[in-house]
Write a structure and sequence with these properties.
heterodimer, A: alpha+beta, Uridine Diphospho-n-acetylenolpyruvylglucosamine Reductase, domain 2, Enolase-like, domain 1, 12 helices, 14 strands, B: Aldehyde Oxidoreductase, domain 3, Aldehyde Oxidoreductase, domain 4, 3 domains, seven-stranded mixed beta sheet, five-stranded mixed beta sheet, 34 strands, 26% strand, globular, binds flavin-adenine dinucleotide
């Protein structure tokens, strides 16, 4: 569990960080280090250099601005846990951060790192899909905004280009009648999900006007379950709609057999969790109406 | 006089001052001048011929000083080493590897990093060979042979009890239940991994070994025996076992890394440190359990009558179990448990497979966990088959208090017990009848709730020299106490604490016997140059053996103290009365001399004809083992959607005889229960068909955290051991041994009405859901 040697850089600006990345094709960005460093210790990742983002100002913080909840990429999970804004208005995000790893990891692990690492077992990607979030990236050719649905291209891979750095995550601002929930089933605390389901709902006059449903760790990337969303939209959120959504989510899952269980089992868990997450999201959305 | 706080006081642990301040001194804290570091390159294959080791690939790494291979060791006749079970084990392979993660070569370097880089850089050519993973397959004719030096994969057949009588008794039963069960491979996963620093002094021909070992003295003797041909002798070997971050049986065996570091130190003339990493610890160190049991239990008119256990024991590629030498299956024949039954027979067949060697006792007195699991599962099944509540069935079939000392059908003499009292207390604490009523209501609503009992009897404190030895060395243990002139004391022991709190409990035993407060007694263990010889700490043996020795040595000191007191008081010895901490003259309690007065006189004014000084030593050979027991009741709720088992309540009533330090006893039980629910629900090291380890890191080997651990509700009964000087029994392992079947019985109880009769462990959510699904009971919400 001893990593091979590597160079270490701690630039002060995004431009400098991008330059270092371009100059060292074998370099990797370092955020909280809680995905990258374990991989280095197992020698599954052997970057020649690390470019630490910690000294670059302005990359962390949580605020509402321009119709979005803006989260700096270097914001750590515990900051989300301690944010009144997140806790009071973004229950799906609040649920998600609480079930990531354990408090010790959450003190260091960053939201940006969680998204950029694109581990199908990471919890934020599904949540971001359900929220219809977008990601701001800064790179050699400037700044761009990427929809969450375009961001995850495969296991551990994203559409970020060489030298590009994720700087901010934007979630549509919570309004009246919105509510969400994250249901994760894990074998023990700190485990990656057997399966998890993110549901974000928008109610309008007692009916579901908008729905986001996405799944964690039951495919090569987080999966947006469009058919499950469709089953909810237009419904009154009754049990029939929830059952239909749960069935559709289970069908959208594409799990593999492993230590956490068989594919059949994981699909069944997705079904159960979708129902539970949707019920809880509905209750919260009604409360916020 | 200060209160002496002997038995029964929850004295704060003396050792905690350093542990909670980060001042413990563990093996990795040992840093010697000029020290080199050793890392180990390991096999990716479970069975393969090594065609070539390209040593130059590791030597090319900056800082690498030496590469040691099996061929190097062969030159010193060190490529093989004996196991405690008289089998042998490779230190490094000369031509074939036998399990994944097996040591292939050692890399010695000037830094820990260079050693790791060297191990990663080492190229080795292998020709993979066929693999046998399943012990049942390994026993079939024509199976891939694991050991080139043996005729087959069958290591041993061991049986105990009356085979014919048991068959006949079973045939005469009106009710017989039969069940197969597997206790899978698990690992102690202690916080500190194994390691050592070997320091060879070529000028003095002296070897110091700092070692994470639970048995420093035995290790010194073993090292002396296996290196005698190299000119090492026992007086030139010093083993120092510093603070240990958890042993649980995993630090009893000798691991190849220890031998490699020693060889490397001899070769380089420098101290060499080897510290195992977390994955190596889980993947290559001794495992526990891996018993495949076929059990039969029969009753006649509701009375348990006969037990039969047939067992296949998977030992991996070598029988490296850590049992007393005459017991290839440990104390598995405690399997008749808490029940009065006249006929029993157990058999075990040991088998080689392409897996790491072992069979150590994971927080258990040699296969007692396996035995308890079998009997407690079977008694539950038999109770149901008799149409009786498992609690009532147990209460009726227990050995009764008046039957002690009790001769078990498998030859043990149980020292003392009151099993009914413990179970009734547990039922009271948990509100057994109310829970049964709640369960009935829940069941009617389709909710799954279960209640499980385990009424275990343990056998600990090995052991009487008549039958207990390790490689011929009798399993006594020792205490040496010296009282200083000012009435303070130092006491040294042949055991070695790994978190059990010996520095406190031993001091309390001496305090009880001599009236010297525990804080005035320095307790030391683990240095073979200073401590008296003993066999170490495992199998809950420290209190039954070394703890008894502390009492006996104290009493010897007291007897000498009586002579000194008589001299000081100018009274007749026979007229002196001992009251904790002082002698006084019968009838005049004012004419007294305290133990401190006596100690001072022992050095300043000792009677003529008596030697000066006040010290004593005892090598205690226990007349019998001790038999702690208890009853645990576990209540679970099962999520029909996910298959998750949640322990709602867990009541543990333990009887370990007289309690020395109740807080430490509770701590041992808390930890033991946590380690007991772990294999029931979470932990397993498994292998795929190619012998690849799955579950070889903490992502897959699921050690419970505080979040998975329920609130423990503890109770006690006290039935002293009649043969132990202070009536104490061991308690370090009761909970690990007793807890798993309580959880299994609870889950089976929750599912009984669906037709479920057994659950294998670990009862993971996926496994439970499969069963629910099979029985049409899985929920979709
Ligand atoms: C014991 C343990 C349990 C865990 N359990 C969970 C869990 O249950 N659920 C879960 O979701 N996660 C879990 N994690 C992962 C944890 O949340 C990670 O820390 C997180 O996935 C990555 O965040 P980080 O800040 O640590 O990123 P790092 O490890 O520093 O980086 C991860 C990857 O992302 C890249 N990267 C980081 N930041 C940026 C950026 N701004 N722009 C572009 N690329 C970037 C890095 O180059 C690297 O490749 C666990 C981790 C541990 C150690």
């Amino acid at each position: 569990m001893i990593p091979p040697s590597f160079d270490y850089h701690a630039p002060d600006t995004l431009e400098e960080a991008s330059r270092l990345l371009l100059a060292n094709p074998e370099a990797k960005l370092l955020a909280g280090g809680h995905s990258l460093i374990p991989m280095m210790r197992f020698r599954l990742a052997e970057p020649a250099a690390l470019v630490d983002l910690r000294r670059i100002p302005g990359l962390s913080g949580i605020r509402e601005e321009g119709g979005s909840l803006c989260i700096g990429a270097m914001t750590c999970e515990s900051a989300l846990e301690k944010s009144d804004l997140v806790q009071s208005r973004y229950p799906l995000l609040a649920d998600t951060t609480r079930v990531i790893a354990d408090p010790v990891v959450r003190n260091l692990a960053t939201v940006g790192g969680n998204v950029a690492h694109a581990d199908p077992g990471n919890d934020h990607p599904a949540t971001m899909l359900a929220y219809r979030a977008s990601f701001v990236a800064s790179g050699p050719s400037g700044r761009r905004t990427i929809a969450a649905s375009d961001f995850f291209t495969g296991p551990f891979s994203t559409c970020l280009e060489e030298g590009e750095i994720l700087t901010e995550i934007r979630i549509p601002e919570a309004g009246p009648g919105s509510g969400g929930a994250y249901q994760k089933f894990e074998r023990k605390v700190g485990d990656y999900a057997v399966a998890a389901v993110a549901v974000q709902l928008q109610l309008d006059g007692g009916r579901v006007a908008g729905a986001g449903v996405a799944l964690t760790n039951v495919g090569l990337t987080a999966i947006q379950a469009g058919a499950a969303e469709a089953a909810l939209v237009g419904s009154d959120g009754g049990d029939a709609a929830l059952d239909a959504a749960a069935e559709a989510a289970a069908a959208a899952a594409d799990p593999a057999d492993d230590h956490r269980g068989s594919a059949d089992y994981k699909r069944a868990v997705v079904r159960v969790l979708t129902h539970r997450a949707a019920s809880s999201a509905l209750a919260r959305a009604r409360e916020a109406s | 006089m200060a209160e002496c706080r002997g038995l029964g006081h929850s004295v704060q642990r003396k050792e905690d001052a350093r542990f909670i301040r980060g001042q413990g001194r563990y093996i990795d804290d040992v840093k010697l001048p000029g020290m080199l570091y050793l890392d180990i390159a390991r096999s990716p294959y479970a069975h393969a011929k090594i065609t070539r080791i390209h040593e130059e690939t590791a030597m090319a790494v900056d800082g690498v000083a030496a590469v040691i291979t099996g061929k190097t060791l062969e030159g010193f006749k060190l490529a093989w080493m004996p196991t405690l079970m008289s089998d042998q084990q490779m230190v490094l392979p000369v031509d074939t590897v036998k399990y994944q993660a097996q040591e292939v070569a050692a890399i010695v370097a000037t830094s820990r990093y260079a050693a790791a880089d060297g191990a990663a850089a080492l190229e080795v050519d292998y020709d993979p060979l066929p693999v046998v993973v399943d012990p049942h397959e390994a026993l079939k004719p024509g199976a891939t042979k694991v050991r080139d030096d043996k005729d087959s994969n069958h290591i041993f057949h061991w049986e105990h009890g009356d085979a014919d009588g048991t068959e006949a008794a079973l045939a005469g039963c009106d009710t017989v239940v039969e069940q197969k069960m597997h206790l899978p491979r698990i690992h102690v996963a202690s916080i500190e991994t194994c390691g050592c620093v070997a320091s060879w002094n070529p000028v003095e021909g002296h070897l110091t070994l700092y070692l994470t070992t639970q048995a420093p003295h035995a290790i010194r003797t073993v090292v002396a025996l296996v290196t005698a041909h190299l000119g090492l002798a026992e007086h030139k070997i010093r083993v120092i076992s510093p603070d240990i971050g958890g042993g649980f049986g995993g630090k009893v065996p000798v691991y190849p890394g220890y031998v490699l570091a020693t060889a490397a130190s001899v070769v380089t003339g420098k101290p060499v440190k080897w510290i195992e990493d977390r994955s190596e610890n889980l993947q290559a160190d001794s495992f526990a359990r891996d018993y495949h049991i076929t059990a039969k239990l029969g009753s006649k008119k509701g009375k348990v009558t006969a037990l039969k256990l047939d067992t296949v024991a998977d030992h991996g590629y070598s029988d490296a179990a850590a049992n007393p030498s005459k017991f290839p299956a440990g104390l598995y024949h405690i399997a008749t448990g808490s029940y009065d039954l006249a006929n029993a027979h157990v058999s075990v067949d040991g088998v080689y497979t392409n897996k790491p060697p072992g069979g150590i006792a994971y927080r258990c007195s040699f296969r007692v966990t396996e035995a308890v699991h079998a009997i407690e599962r079977m008694v539950d099944l038999l109770a149901r088959e008799n149409g009786e509540d498992p609690a009532d069935f147990r209460l009726r079939n227990f050995i009764k208090p008046e039957q002690f000392p009790y001769q078990s059908a498998l030859g043990w003499e149980y020292d003392s017990g009151n099993y009914g009292a413990a179970l009734e207390k547990a039922m009271d604490m948990i509100g057994y009848q109310d829970l049964r009523a709640e369960q009935a209501e829940k069941r009617a609503r389709g909710e799954l709730m279960g209640i499980g009992i385990s009424s275990f009897t343990e056998i600990v404190g090995a052991g009487p020299s008549k039958t207990f030895d390790i490689l011929g060395i009798k399993m006594f243990d020792s205490a040496e106490i010296r009282i200083h002139p000012t009435g303070k004391a130092i006491a040294r022991f042949g055991t070695k604490s790994q978190g059990q709190g010996h520095e406190t409990t031993y001091a309390q035993i001496i305090a009880e016997e001599l009236g010297i407060p525990p804080e005035d007694i320095q307790v030391e263990e683990g240095d073979t140059d200073t401590a008296p010889y003993g066999l170490g700490t495992y199998a809950s043996r420290s209190t039954p053996t070394a703890g008894a020795a502390a009492s006996i040595a104290s009493r010897k000191i007291r007897e000498k103290g009586r002579k000194i007191a008589a001299h000081l008081l100018e009274a007749d010895e026979a007229d002196l009365v001992w009251e904790q901490g002082k002698f006084y003259v019968k009838g005049s309690p004012d004419r007294a001399k305290t133990i401190q007065d006596i100690a001072f006189a022992a050095y300043t004014n000792h009677p003529q004809g008596l030697e000066a000084g006040l010290e004593a030593i005892s090598y205690y050979d226990p007349p019998n083992l001790t038999f702690p027991f208890g009853s645990y009741i576990c209540c679970v709720d099962i999520d029909r959607g996910t298959g998750q088992v949640k322990i709602r309540r867990f009541v543990a009533v333990d009887d370990c005889g007289v309690r020395i330090n109740p807080m430490i006893v509770d701590g041992q039980i808390h930890g033991g229960l946590t380690m007991g629910i772990a294999p029931a629900l979470l932990e397993e090291i498994s292998y795929d068909a190619d012998g690849n380890i799955t579950g070889g890191n903490f992502m897959e080997y699921l050690v419970p955290t505080a979040m998975e651990t329920p609130h423990w509700e503890l109770g006690e009964t006290v039935t002293p051991s009649p043969h132990h000087p202070i009536g104490a029994k061991g308690v370090g392992e009761s909970a690990t041994v007793g807890a798993p079947p309580a959880v299994v019985n609870a889950v089976v109880d929750a599912l009984w009405h669906l037709g479920v009769r057994h659950m294998e462990i670990p009862m993971t959510p996926a496994r439970v859901w499969d069963v629910l699904n099979e029985h049409g009971a899985a929920a979709t919400r």
